[in-house]
User: Fold this.
Amino acid sequence: MNILSLLVLIPLLTIAGILFLKDTQKTRLVSAIGMGIQLIVAAVLVFMYLSERKAGNTDEMLFVRSYEWFKSLNIYYTVGVDGISVAMIALTSIVVIAGIFASWQVENLTREFFISLILLSSGVFGFFISLDLFTMFLFYEVAVIPMYLLIGIWGSGPKEYSAMKLTLMLMGGSALLLVGILGIYFNSAPGGGELSFNILEISKIQIPIEAQRFFFPLTFVGFGVLGALFPFHTWSPDGHASAPTAVSMLHAGVLMKLGGYGAFRVAMFLMPEAADEMAWIFIILTSVSVVYGAFGAIVQKDLKYINAYSSVSHCGLVLFAILMMNKTAMTGAILQMISHGLMTALFFALIGMIYGRTHTRLIHEMGGLMKVIPFLGVVYVIAGLASLGLPGLSGFVAEMTIFFGAFEHTDPFHRIATLVAVSSIVITAVYILRVVGTLLLGPIKNDHFNHLEDATWFERISTITLVVAVAAIGVAPYWLSTMIGDSMLPIVNKLLTANPF
Amino acid sequence: MEMNQIIFILFAAIIVVFSILTVTSRRILRAAVSLLFVLVSTAGLYFMLNFAFLAAVQLALYAGGIVVLIIFSILLTSHISQKMEAVDLKKSVFSALAVILGMILTITTILQFSFQATTAAAAEINMEVIGKAMLSYEVDGFVLPFELISVLLLAAMVAAIIIAKKGSPVSDAPNPDKP
Amino acid sequence: MNNGIPLQYFLILASIMFFVGIYGFLTRRNLIGILMSVELILNSVNINFLAFNRYLYPDRLEGLFFSLFIIAVAAAEAAVAIAIIINIYRRFSTVNVEHVNEMRF
Amino acid sequence: MTTDFGYALLIPLIPLLMFLLLGLAGNQLKARLSGLLGTIGLGVVFVLSYYTAYKYFFATEKIAGAFSKITAFDMVWLRFSDSLHINMGILLDPISVMMLVVISTVSFMVHIYSLGYMKGEVGFERFYAFLSLFSFSMLGLVLANNIFQMYIFWELVGVSSFLLIGFYYQRPTAVLASKKAFIVTRFADLGFLIGILLLSFNTGTFDFSILCDPQGAAIATGSGAAFLGLSVMTWSLIFVFMGGAGKSAMFPLHIWLPDAMEGPTPVSALIHAATMVVAGVYLVARLFPVYIISAPDALVVVAYIGAFSSIFAAVIACTQTDIKRVLAYSTMSQIGLMMVGLGVSGYGGHEGLGYMASMFHLFTHAMFKALLFLGAGAIIHAVHSNHMTEMGGLRKYLPITHITFLIACLTIAGIPPFSAFFSKDEILVAAWHHDKLIFAVEYIVAGLTAFYMFRLYFNIFWGKETHYHHTPHEAPAVMTIPLIFLAFLSVFSGFIPFSKLVTTDGIPFEGHIDWSLALPSVFIGLVGIIIAMVMYKKETSLPDKVAATFKHGYKWAFNKFYMDEVYMFVTKKIIFAYISTPVAWFDRHIVDGSMNGISRLTNAFSFRIREFQSGQLQKYGFVFISGVLLLTFLMVYLWN
Assistant:
């Protein structure tokens, strides 16, 4: 059994296990155990990957396995990982386990909740290991669709509206994406011969430039919708605001990363010439969205909205960095995905926990919570500091890598775009401190808050897992950055053929 | 003009006239009787085409069975003397237009097409041939459609009984959509 | 019996019958009227089948058998349709098709 | 060589460990114990720092007569590209060793002092955890061997300052002040970061030892293309200075500093007087060779901003009544003076007098300003008020505080033989030789400084007898011992031969006092003191009369020249009202509106076409038949 397929299989087995259970308590336990095993497998994978690389294996992808699936269209179930996917898998498994613990208290239809949640995560894992465009797309859909149920059933507020909006927008994205993928497929053998869905094989040939011009924007925007590309980000505030805690965590933490990951693994990697030609459009869009999201976050009143806009800003930075098309910036993009995934998951977990206590998410109704729930307060401050890029936490490492990478371009356009993006660090500080100041500090506004309980054991597990990961990356980024950067080389080399600046 | 042509024209005239009456008569029972005439004349055409068995079936099943069934249901659902309301003018004009256009289209097509006359000898059609063919599973055998039809008939019978059964739980279930 | 009568005559007759049936189908309000129109349509098809069989492929039996089966199907259809009509009548106290529009949007 | 100083790694690491210990397990420990642990940790750092200073200045051989730059520790922390990588390292050179001494001394004193001052406060262990975090960051900052490491610790220092200002987090003013401090310095750091980006891509390195080598390639290659009349190098250094100006509260980024006094007084002493706020000066000093060689224009900017800030702050300080705010503006003024020192300095030998003097002043200022703040803390501790209007005649109740405070005031006024006399004098000399205008400004500032310090002194310890709720009593020994120690340093640190230790190029030179300039400066100091004595020693109506005479000027100065209002206008009006709210509105209504619009359009369209689904069987039939006919027609007559 291939270790990669195991990553998809374990969630499915967990689901099967849950199906036979009636007891809520056991359901939680089985989910936690299943995802715990998943975390261990992910850790083993990281270890195996590093030792394989250390042993001198320089293949582009490791642990590649391919099974024929649908012969006449050359669809294969092909899996393989490089440093980037390994990092993303590690991120996902951490966020998922934190999400399981954060949703410990789901009362309504517990079994179905965990099944959907784990199904979603299974799709995400599948997406990250796939090397076949079709399989990748399949897993992408598997990851997106449970979202509708999760928000529509277990959400709050105008949940049907939000779920519908989110699903429709993401489906709209996938429609573009499907066209893009089919376009790549039918252009994968310009000189005649077998068509292919395999990313590695397609990367060896050059797709005709006319086809690229047409399919690159489709693919990029298709993934960009999920990656909160301005102006297709508006599902995010509503969706996050309505989603239950764990779903927000997974969605912002992991699912939005599918967008960024796909955008560069499929759109940029396979169609570098068009990417090079059109990058300027998207660079403008993303640098706008970085600042725009941050400004938007300043005046929001709902905690989740603040975080959703913050995600727009941070995810904009991911796409911005990808478009810079050099090793440093793209490494930074992956780091930012991981960093943002962890800290935003942490944020949403905390917001859920705070909401569960105060029954409000409006910041001006809260105040002085640090006094009554110090644990959650401190973790919230840590998450906030990570988000505004404090050294020693993950956000700093990612942002700096991106800024330095982007600054490697010497032309004024890229440099000015970079400066625009850099200025977001101040705006971020403004809204983060505004929230922290209003929410946690100051006098207690409501007597009812005096009797709040601090975090329970499962909430502690959930948040501490994430905090440790955030701090670990922030303190010792070297190995992660190197692992990602080395895997970035083939991609960058391919891009360089298009853009030998 | 030969005799058979005259008979054909007669049958054709009956069919056309009574067809029209069937669909236009405002007394439903008269319409049913007109239908009966149409069906009987059709049976006559079958005789002319040398399909005696089928003509018999037509008379027995259609004229004898279905028309009676229809008349029964008419009697169950309306008064004998009940006159139906006049057809909506707009509707009839549009329908007539469509139908006439269709007719023109079809008839011109038929007239333009040259059918190739065959020289093959006509097959003997008698009860034995029909019965054997119906149960044969060789080439030119029809056992499969025959069996299908029998299953269909059975299903239709069961369905008819269940649907028409009074006070069946399905039909009397309260309809949640209706206010 | 059919010498001297061209195939086209049968076909034209059948198409007239067919379209008259269609007209009835489109204009009749009474469900039973509609059912009768459908019978007309089926009959016209039968005539076509048999005429083709006789004129073009006199050595084969397909036309005959299909007509036979159509008659059988028509019988089944009539039975079920009438059952439905009676049920509708019980439920809506009418057989006017325009009043039976539960399926609208 | 490197191994000799390997232990230097412990200097920042011990406070870090203390922070982790107190931060994670602090609430399990007894408050007293955690305070003691923090203090002991800092004590070890104190000893190590003095040992390092001794060893570096006196026991390490000079290379070609210059103090060598020693990299005691170095590792790659993050690799950007093959050429650019961030290292974590420890660089020992005269200024970093000097800063080690400053930081560990003041920090240690503050740790001891806080044992008494913060006694019984809620969150005592949190306070010590934050202090340790601050000490760690500040030590890391000064020991940084590359500019990016400096930036990292720069940010950490900022956040520890934020945490400590907001220590009383239930007090809204403290929360606001901490927020303000963080955001303003963050904004400045944006400039710093842009400066680093420009600088590092022009020179291809972060490393100070390469960057600051006057003969090195980095400086030579750096001065490249021009932009708006200034070279890129100049721009980058101006941006870097913007970061320094933010931390060091230079005009116009100074507004956070007075508000930062909301923090506990020991914090003000440590962070907002002695150490963190001089980080900007340290930054410019650290990059001094780059400034002087490749961008002298940037140094002019430094000098003028420093000079303007110093007089600006001195004027405001004359009108404030909150004693901590007076000290805060005084700090700003003194830092401006240090910036002037750097700005008017040359490079090498006696030319680098300004640089040496600036560092010297940094050193002495740290001691006497920490002393002033700790003294103020002792006063506040005794009378539970910050306002000098509520004080008076305290010399009888607080004798030790009184004496030490007086020493500090005399020091800052530049009266010989106290330490600041020597350092300030050197700066004035350098300014005299470089730019007479700046000299004139600083000369006035010297007088103003003496005036407002003694205004403070007389108001507190003399002046009218105030009735106190409880009789003020002298602070406990843990608080007075640091006062005495710092007073000792304030008096005698002027005799340290700085020109033999800290110079631009590491080569010692002979310093001497230029009495022709020193005497006038002493004179103006004395004038200031005498005016203050006349006005405030006894309760008179003189101050009110003076205020009335310069009514508008007084009002402007009292309101800090309305800088806060300007900032509030910019943030509240421009950012909140004219950018963020429209952005949010735009997002909800235009961007999201167009998405919703698409769905509404689809919906409306569906409502239209649902008419087809009328439930009228015959309509369906009609459409169906028409369609079939049309298709038949097409198939038979057109497509054939």
About this structure: Residues 7-92 of chain C form a domain with the Helix Hairpins fold (CATH 1.10.287.3510). The mean pLDDT of chain C is 87.
